[in-house]
Write a structure and sequence with these properties.
Length: 216
């Protein structure tokens, strides 16, 4: 199926929710297998020494799925996306999956990164824990452009007390744009006594490709 056909099907899906937009299976937000076929996982990207494993670039159907997850309010879609991601990559040796937290004051009904983490958890058998929180006064900066995001303070995220101590953690985000949010999440996990071992994101922005490096 071409990308245009996929997009057309996806648009039709918006009028007929709760059916897989790709194969039409009724009652599914999207089949894990249909989602898995859409993924184009590149080799892991080196994110400051942390391997970042994305499902593909932030464009086309993968981007549309993130938007549907953010604005459609269908948490089951996020879980299915996470399960597909969990089949695209082998389970890393880790104790916890830790999603990037929802910004304070966000109008979202749920944390889309936590939904993706839950899907990963079902595939890998690693529990999830919302062990990070945005520091006060830092939250609004992440809604600004990529340039400002790079300047995000090192302590923009903070570990919840005792949540990550002694744990090998995998950080989970829906989209990685510059990688800064995940780097700050890794910093926070370390401050909380945890050891970040990998990061997962549904998509990675094309602008990040310029500094792409293969993790050996
Ligand atoms: Zn399907």
């Amino acid at each position: 199926m071409s990308t245009l056909e996929e997009l057309a099907r996806f648009a039709a899906h918006l009028a007929w929710p709760r059916a897989c937009p790709f194969c039409g299976a009724v009652g599914e937000s999207a089949c894990v297998l249909c989602l898995l076929r859409l993924l184009k996982p590149p080799l892991p990207i080196d994110l400051g020494g942390l391997p970042l494993m994305p499902g593909g670039e932030h464009e086309g159907v993968l981007r549309e799925l993130v938007l549907a997850l953010k604005y459609g309010g269908d948490r089951a879609l996020g879980i299915a996306m996470g399960r597909a991601l969990g089949r695209a990559y082998p389970s890393p040796g880790a104790d916890l999956l830790v999603p990037v937290p929802l910004h304070p004051g966000s109008p979202r009904a749920f944390n889309q990164s936590a939904a993706i983490a839950e899907g990963l958890s079902r595939e890998w058998g690693i529990p999830t824990r919302e062990g990070l929180a945005w520091s006060e006064r830092r939250a609004e900066q992440t809604t600004l452009g990529a340039e400002r995001r790079t300047a995000m303070p090192r302590d923009a995220l903070a570990p919840k007390k005792g949540a990550l101590a002694g744990m090998r953690v995998v950080l989970v985000d829906d989209v990685s744009t510059t990688g800064t949010t995940l780097l700050r999440a890794a910093d926070a996990a370390r401050r909380g006594g945890g050891t970040p071992v990998a990061a997962l994101s549904w998509t990675v922005a094309a602008e990040a490709k310029g500094r792409e490096q293969v993790v050996r």
